[in-house]
Design goal:
Blueprint lengths: L2 H10 L10 E5 L4 H17 L5 E5 L12 H12 L1
Amino acid sequence: MTLCRFAAMIAIRKEVAMDGPHLIYFSDPMCSWCYGFSPVIEDIRRGYGNALPVRVVMGGLRPGTTTPMKPEARREIVGHWTT
């Protein structure tokens, strides 16, 4: 399951109260580590169910940036996804 699909699924589960203990997972759809870690978060969600709701907070490697990414930065990020 992709991280974006997982985040969307969590957003749909709004009926679960977040006023008690819950897991807040900070993630970034551009981050290869976050993408690779998403099965662990899914296992936690499946294993604990409503006893430990998961709240996904999406971030970004380039928040608020208005300039295009430089070619060397693109190559570096692509390298993380292909190794």
